[in-house]
Amino acid sequence: MSKKIIIITCLICLSFSISAQTERGHWLLNPQFTAFDLSGTNNDLDKDNRFKLGMGFKGGNFLCDRLALLVGVGFKVDRQNDYKDNSINLNTGLRYYLFSKLYLSAELGYDKVWLREYSSNITRKRDYFYFGADLGYSIFVSQNVAIEPDVYWKYSFTDQRNEYGFKIGIGVFF
To answer: Which UniProt keywords apply (predicted)?
Structure first.
């Protein structure tokens, strides 16, 4: 019983010491990786032979304690038996840290998508504007580096290109 109390006390103390990284004037760099989309526009097409990979990079500054303004860029590759879908992404948004480690993000973004069916020589290009939201948690492995798993949701304003899933990032605070 006393070991549990000591461990809980240490975790609480560590949680308070980490919160200094989210104070005004600090910077955040956040490379992210996703291959875990759970749903999307084309998810019903041949799930057995599917390759999906996304990578992104976000960076920003804490405008005030626990509130960061972020800008980002990323790309995604989606290949199935019948088609391939490549996209690039630009976004900007806000991230707010609750309880020093749990965070909520909201962003507005733009996707440029190239969709090509293998049976055709025609590549369709589309533009999508979207609103996105994330809920994540920062697991600090050192004073300035955190592993940040989160769930995300993207709602497209055009053409029903909506998705949600899981991504993991590395947060570097300085």
So the answer is: Signal
Task: List the structure tokens of 56.
Answer: 């992104």
pLDDT for the residue 122: 86
Contact 66, 22 (CB under 8 A): yes
Going through the chain in order, the beta strands assigned E by DSSP cover 27-39, 51-64, 67-79, 83-98, 102-117, 123-137, 139-140, 145-156, 163-173
Task: Reduce the DSSP state of residue 157 to 3 states and report it.
Answer: coil
In the chain, which residues have pLDDT < 50?
11, 14-17, 43, 45-46
- Distance between CA atoms of 97 and 132, rounded to whole angstroms? 17
Q: Please state the pTM of the whole predicted model.
A: 0.80
Contact status, residue 51 vs residue 76, Cβ threshold 8 Å: no
Contacts (Cβ under 8 Å, ≥6 apart) of 125: 112, 113, 114, 115
Other beta carbons within 10 angstroms of residue 1's beta carbon come to 5
Domains and CATH numbers, the chain: 2-173 (2.40.160.20)
